[in-house]
Design goal:
about 450 residues; four-stranded antiparallel sheet; six-stranded mixed sheet; Immunoglobulin-like; about 25% helix
């Protein structure tokens, strides 16, 4: 192609006008190009993700949600920064009423996740709700995710909404011989002597206290399973060793053996949606309660042996209460033997403290698990009829994964027979057993379990 050189000089203003025209044409062309493609290119590859109650996406797919209190999370694309204060927007649209709400400044953002506990003031209507999240990063890239969720009302009120009490009764005496069954259980483990009643009661009280602390930790999770961003998120249930006539009370008896099922450490009836908030789990027909005597099924556990051998005569130990240094006053001595204690007292005290801690934590894990059944865990079937609980065999009212198989993760409401002594004591690889996020969302009234879709 032949070119011609333009002779003469072109004035500055003319150049400016010329460049402006070119810029406008380029912008117009770009705009037309973008509109031809439906607007700027939007990344819908899953880098921006809408989450509900911290529950894995596959498990949360069919959950039913109340009209408030559940937790909406948006996982932002990794290694991106927002373009400006208006770069992040969430739109909620009721498909039944058409009402639309836009939210952009009420989320808290931590560790790349934007979180909002849906307030009652938003006024969500029951039915399908469309949630759309958009995000523009500092480079101008557009990200989007969208999902539909179902808002439902509770029939008869929320399951855990009413403040209630789980009464763990350590004083039950099923055989009516005048001695609490729990004290006789401790005799099996060398942790009590029948002719040292006062001392035995002191040991029982300390184990009871430790067990209740373990239960309370399970229902006041520090790992924030539902991703609220709060320091504490406790379940609205109280756990007590006594009763309160002003409250709704579920009584669970602790002591003795299961007369029908050898090796069963707990049998508490599953109560769908926690409908009976005054149940009594102390019966013989059907058998119900928690049975510490059955912990002997773990007698081959290394931790069991290490903790209890010092008190079992058959293993060279001395029953608690029979050693010269065993007395109520031993608890007034520092654990390191300082004060008026000898080196031997320090060693014995250390053994006693360890037994109280381990047996208390094991028993507390079982109590937390069985209380979960009384409160409605784990409802069989998938959401919204259930919570991915099993419907028969050992899986009944226990966790299954989203595909109907036993979970690969170790959760508190998995079938109890699969836990080792170490796991019940919180000394397994994953530490103390915890509720999985879907279970915890139910306990915090953040998902609805319905008797019909």
């Amino acid at each position: 192609m032949r070119t011609h050189r333009i002779q003469g000089r072109v004035s500055g203003p003319l150049v400016a006008v010329f460049l402006g025209v070119l810029g406008g044409l380029a912008l117009l062309a770009l705009t037309r190009f973008e509109f031809a493609l439906g607007g700027p290119k939007i990344d819908r590859s899953g880098r921006l993700v809408i989450l509900i109650n911290g529950i894995p996406e596959r498990m949360a797919r069919d959950v039913l949600l109340p009209n408030h209190a559940w937790v909406l999370q948006i996982r932002l694309p990794e290694e991106t920064q927002p373009g400006n204060d208006e770069a992040f927007l969430v739109t909620l649209r009721s498909e039944r009423t058409g009402a639309t709400i836009q939210i952009e400044d009420r989320f808290s953002i931590q560790n790349g996740i934007a979180t909002l506990a849906i307030p009652k003031s938003i006024g969500l209507a029951t039915g399908l709700l469309s949630v759309r999240a958009t995000y523009i990063d500092a480079t101008g890239r557009h990200f989007e995710d969208q999902r539909r969720i179902r808002i439902r009302s509770w029939f008869g009120g929320s399951p855990i909404g009413e403040r209630q009490i789980i009464h763990f009764d350590f004083e039950v005496d099923r055989d009516e011989d005048g001695v609490p069954d729990f004290l006789k259980d401790l005799e099996r483990f060398g942790l009590a002597s029948p002719d040292q009643r006062d001392f035995a009661e002191r040991i029982a009280a300390r184990i009871e206290e430790r067990a209740l602390e373990r239960v309370e930790r399970a229902y006041d999770a520090t790992d924030d399973p539902n991703g609220t961003g709060r320091d504490r998120d406790p379940v609205h249930v109280r756990f007590r060793p006594d009763t309160d006539p002003r409250s709704l009370i579920t009584r669970i008896c602790i002591g003795g053996s299961d007369p029908l099922k050898r090796g069963s450490v707990g049998q508490v009836r599953f109560d769908l949606r926690n409908e009976d908030k005054t149940s009594v789990e102390c019966g013989d027909e059907p058998v119900s309660g928690i049975f510490p005597a059955e912990l002997e099924i773990y007698k081959d556990s290394p931790l069991y042996r290490a903790v209890l051998d010092p008190f079992l005569k058959a293993h060279g130990g001395t029953v608690l209460g029979k050693h010269p240094d065993d007395s109520i006053s031993m608890f007034e001595i520092d654990a390191d033997g300082s004060g008026n204690g000898s080196v031997w007292i320090s060693r014995r005290r250390s053994e006693v403290d360890r037994a109280i801690a381990v047996i208390g934590d094991v028993l507390g894990s079982i109590m937390a698990h069985e209380a979960g059944h009384a409160l409605g865990l784990v409802a069989p079937s998938q959401p919204g009829l259930g919570l991915f609980g099993g419907s028969d065999g050992e899986a009944y009212a226990h966790n299954l994964d989203a595909f109907g198989d036993p979970p690969s993760d170790l959760w508190l409401m998995n079938p109890g027979g699969r836990f080792s002594f170490e796991e019940l004591a919180g000394q397994g690889v994953d530490g103390p057993l915890r509720f999985r996020p879907l279970n915890y969302a139910y306990l915090r009234d953040r998902v609805v379990v319905s008797d019909k879709h």
